[in-house]
Design brief:
- This protein is mostly helical.
- α2 packs across α3 and α2 packs antiparallel against α4.
- The relative contact order is 0.08.
């Protein structure tokens, strides 16, 4: 027989008053900050997974290649990976992509297709990437 524990809906909300001078209070503050950081990371992970799935379906590739494509776009746009994923998912829902992100997506897709064909060099007109940090 399995036992299920029911937790109140607000169980995660730590409402304890904490004094920063008290060592236990500092621990509570640090734990709250860590929980907030983990929640944000999990929320970002979900949208990254969704964007990876879109890339895998639209540009038939494996998960690693799809994630690398998103990372490539992120680097070209100087944007965080979750922000790139959010923009791609929003584009699927009708929001236009910025010109910078459109250009980065085109370049990343060209590189993906070139790698898939086994070409060691980038397509004509693309920089080789040498000399880049």
């Amino acid at each position: 027989m399995r036992r299920t524990a029911m937790l109140p809906e607000d169980w995660w909300d730590l409402r304890a008053e904490a004094s920063v001078e008290d060592p236990a209070g500092r621990d509570v503050v640090a734990l709250r900050a860590e929980i907030d950081q983990l929640r944000r990371a999990l929320a970002g992970r979900a949208v990254i997974d969704q964007a990876c799935g879109m890339v895998m379906a639209l540009a038939p590739c494996r998960r690693g290649a799809a994630r690398n494509l998103l990372v490539d776009i992120s680097g070209q746009c100087n944007a965080r990976l979750p922000d790139v994923a959010v923009a791609l998912v929003a584009a699927w829902e009708g929001e236009p992509l910025s010109r910078l992100m459109q250009r980065a997506l085109r370049r990343a897709l060209r590189r993906l297709y070139a790698e898939d064909r086994g070409c060691g060099s980038p397509p004509p007109g693309e920089p080789s990437g040498k000399g880049r940090p």
